[in-house]
Structure formats: structure tokens, C-alpha cells
């Protein structure tokens, strides 16, 4: 799959992410050890603890020694639903947090420092979709893309794309384009199951699509609400979906063909939703 967001190519060193680029994805789970077993078996991830754990137990997932995602453990007793969180790069997390508060969004956590890795904010957009803001220091983002087990794309699923597009455009300076104008980038923005294939927008930086917003109206799952979806690259979507079930997860949307490739939407054993993608070549 062509690179669609700002992480370095395999073999490249750390680079500063362009503000607005999806740079990191992280999951907070109730049972960190069990969820490591699931994703390790599914994606071949290895794990290590990056150091002091001011924010609680946390590990980074790696492939060939390169960071690709993060897994943390929720505070015992907090029965919050688990979900993957997309982090958008920023040069100034504090300024971004203030802007979010003044523009109809909500800041739930931060700004605060995650040791020397960077500075973070956890927020929700005006429609209620949670997302993160990351000001990278020692960790600027995922170090590997384009291989199985790595994040391949990030898409906001909401009721009406136009209702939140202005919020993200003003926050990060995106060029917002209709989805069909970016089909040549092979971004998974058009699915045959979509109830309104016209309510799709792509978020571009420097003429390159980095993420998408998909409005699904009443088809938005009530139990999840607006949310950012992480797509993970896999070698074989059908085999990966079967493996999800074997490991205790569920398949919500069976493998099917889409413009970007073959995909399936699944959950891990705690219910966190993500999409498997075998990208078109």
C-alpha cells in the first residue's frame, strides 16, 4: 500500500510528524497481559515497557524492534469500554488543547507529559468522537508502516462528515476534499456497505491524504457512537479474520472487497473495534 500518512518508511530514522498526521495509535484495556497475548498472536507483535509508568502500566508493541502501537491498562475498577485511540501530531499540545476547548470539543485528559516520550492530550470532537493529540519528543510516532501488523489508515466514523470537518480543518489546517477526489491514493474511504457513499471526505496535508471522515447517519452503531477507526495491514484478510475468532475476538463485518483492498471489521476479546486490511497493490 502506498504510504498515506506521515510515518517514516521502513529503514528511516525518526522524523518530525507534520501537524495533523495520524502518528500513533494506542489501546487502553482492562487486562493488559491477556490483550498482549491476543495482539501478539494476531499481528506478531513483541512488547516492551518504555520506562517509568506515570500513567499506569503501558507497553509499546514492536515489529522487528520498531514501535508500531501502544497498549495500556485501565485503572482497576474503571469499567470503561476499550477502544483504539488515534493520535494526531501537533507541535504544541497545550495550544491544541486550548483551541479544542474553545471550539466545541472536550479535553478529557491533559495536556500532560508522558515522561520524555512526548506530551499528550485526550479529547473529543464536537460530535463526541475521542481522539488524541501527540507532541512527540523522543517518540514522534510509529516507526514502521506498509508491512503486516502496522497501522495503515485512520478514518473518523461519525453521523455527518460535514458537521465535524470544519473542526478538524481549523485545528490542523487540513485541505478537506470529497472522497472520490482521493481514490487514486487507495485510501479505504468507499465501502460497498456504506449507506451514503457520498458523505465521505478526505483530510489532506501538502496534497496527500492522511485520514478520512465517513458519515454514516443512522447506521452509526449506537453502542460505539462517533469514533476513529484504525486499519491494520494484514497479509491475508480472510485468514486474519479467522484468527481473530480463534483468539476470542469477533467479526463484525466479514471480509469483503473495497477500493483499497480486502477488509474486515473485527473486535478483540474486550470489544475494541478495528479493521483488517489487505491493501491493493
TrEMBL record:
Pfam families referenced in this protein's UniProt entry, alphabetically: Glyoxalase_6
Domain VOC positions: 21-136, 150-279
PROSITE patterns registered for this protein in UniProt: VOC
Protein name in UniProt: VOC family protein
Protein source organism: Streptomyces telluris
Amino acid at each position: 500500500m502506498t504510504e498515506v500518512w506521515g510515518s517514516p518508511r521502513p529503514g528511516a530514522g525518526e522524523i518530525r510528524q507534520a501537524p495533523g498526521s495520524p502518528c500513533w495509535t494506542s489501546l487502553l484495556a482492562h487486562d493488559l497481559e491477556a490483550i498482549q497475548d491476543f495482539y501478539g498472536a494476531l499481528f506478531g507483535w513483541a512488547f516492551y515497557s518504555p520506562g517509568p509508568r506515570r500513567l499506569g502500566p503501558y507497553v509499546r508493541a514492536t515489529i522487528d524492534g520498531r514501535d508500531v502501537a501502544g497498549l495500556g491498562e485501565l485503572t482497576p475498577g474503571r469499567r470503561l469500554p476499550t477502544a483504539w485511540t488515534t493520535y494526531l501530531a501537533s507541535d504544541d499540545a497545550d495550544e491544541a488543547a486550548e483551541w479544542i476547548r474553545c471550539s466545541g470539543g472536550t479535553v478529557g485528559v491533559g495536556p500532560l507529559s508522558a515522561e520524555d516520550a512526548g506530551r499528550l492530550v485526550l479529547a473529543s470532537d464536537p460530535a463526541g468522537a475521542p481522539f488524541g493529540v501527540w507532541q512527540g519528543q523522543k517518540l514522534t510516532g510509529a516507526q514502521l508502516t506498509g508491512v503486516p501488523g502496522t497501522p495503515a489508515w485512520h478514518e473518523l466514523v461519525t453521523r455527518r462528515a460535514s458537521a465535524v470537518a470544519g473542526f478538524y480543518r481549523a485545528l490542523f489546517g487540513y485541505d478537506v476534499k470529497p472522497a472520490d477526489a482521493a481514490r487514486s491514493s487507495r485510501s479505504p474511504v468507499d465501502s460497498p456497505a456504506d449507506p451514503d457513499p457520498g458523505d465521505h471526505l478526505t483530510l489532506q496535508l501538502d496534497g496527500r491524504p492522511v485520514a478520512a471522515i465517513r458519515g454514516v447517519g443512522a447506521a452509526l452503531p449506537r453502542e460505539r457512537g462517533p469514533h476513529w477507526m484504525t486499519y491494520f495491514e494484514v497479509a491475508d484478510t480472510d485468514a486474519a479474520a479467522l484468527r481473530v475468532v480463534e483468539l476470542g475476538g469477533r467479526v463484525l463485518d466479514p471480509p469483503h472487497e473495497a477500493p483499497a483492498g480486502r477488509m474486515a471489521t473485527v473486535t478483540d476479546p474486550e470489544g475494541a473495534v478495528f479493521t483488517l486490511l489487505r491493501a491493493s497493490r
